[in-house]
Amino acid sequence: MARGAGPPLDPARLRAARAGAGLTQAALAAAAGLHRAQIIDYEHGRARPELHRLAALAAATGAGVADLVEDGALPPGLAGLRSGAGLTLAAAADAVAAHLPEQTPIACSRPVLGRAEKGALPPSWRPEAAGAMVRNALGVAYRAAAADVEAAWATTFDGPVIPNPTPVPWTPPRPGTETLADLRRMADMDHAQAASALTVDAGGLAALEDGAELQGWTTADAGRLLPALATAYAVPVRMVLDAWMRTRPGEVPEIPLPRRRGPSSAALETWEALNPRQRLYLGEIMRDERMAQAEQWLRRYHHLRPDPAQVWRSLPLALAAPVELVGHTRLQQRLRDAGVHDPGAGSTVHALARRNLLTVTRDTVVVPSVGEVEQVSVTLTRAGRAAARAGLGEPAATRPPGHLLSEWLWRHLVRVAHTGDEGLHENELAGKPLFHLAVGYRRRPGGHPARGLIESRPVMAPQGTHVLEYRWHLTEVGRAHLVAYWEVYADLYPEVDTEADGRV
Q: Which positions ≥6 away from 344 have C-beta within 8 Å?
């Protein structure tokens, strides 16, 4: 069954349930949050509702999901119990997890529940007390009787479960300190289950997690295994890379980097079709946009909220007022310096707009000592930006590979690296970067942890009586990441100052 798809609906049963509830098609549609046309399609067998819509139809008619679908349509075991409750796998995982005791080591993410429905008993469910808590949470989340849950459990796991008498104790790690073994346990998989998902030997996987030397193993082999681990454990590749470097210090998996693409033929053709004046305008507008982007970096640096992209990308071009009163805009001055002595919102700008290379907007701004003045602004489109890059001989813009940092985060990591053993004062780094880089942080509750490339360390008083302050330092993985990918970042982000005076 596809993600979100519901079991086959029986049109006759839907019509009977609607009639039994005394509802018209329009009334049922309103009660279920649907359109009447959808109800008509369902009742004539022309469409199959998704699971959440099937649950809405059941609730609106006072029936159960099982009462509306074809005989035998619900799968056996826990999957059928969930479908009967009208819950998708993701919604069910959230609902069950919400009814488990807080701070419990019992896992119930979407991948864990999905594997459980296929008969793979998660390790954290095996202890007798844990299994009882999971069954209770299933009953509450699915609004099912305890006997029905027990029966579905026995069907799914092929009979009564023999509890694991000696469960291996494990405490979830601090965010940003995960090892390969931690990732497997967070996915609630034992060595055999993980090895099966990865099509590798369980003993080899255990040796990998122990940091043991693997005969014939190369960094290229490691690089090929990383995406498979990320898929099996349902985490990003960057998280597996960091865990790998914590588990196996000094070993950096070889991950192929995408080739830097040259400009597209369409962008080159667009540039070639422009006259010299239009090319000059487009190039200077792109340079002005880059200056505006640099200003946003400075705002981040000084812990100020940056403007939304649609705001700073809109570049003031001309003001409808005498120059002696309002002066030239920065973009006008750029054009004048390039030899255009009548820069404004005339034929050149509108010709570029007609080619969909930029957009022109007009609004009103207040100029001190002048009052309200009409302002003409221009914004590059993607096609305009691509044509300007092609004409100036620059490679096409590419996102960094998933295991590398964005330019914004790389700048912050370099800032910490520049401070060496002294560290960066805690007040010098705050806000969003910490939720991506620092040990102990995660981007959102329940989300993936930060990468753990930096950590806060206390600076003690001379006699060790109290903490004077806290400073940010590179972690061992942060230092290894920086050394391993220094040249790659230098190529990706040449404008970032990576001169660290030998202190890295």
A: 317, 318, 332, 376
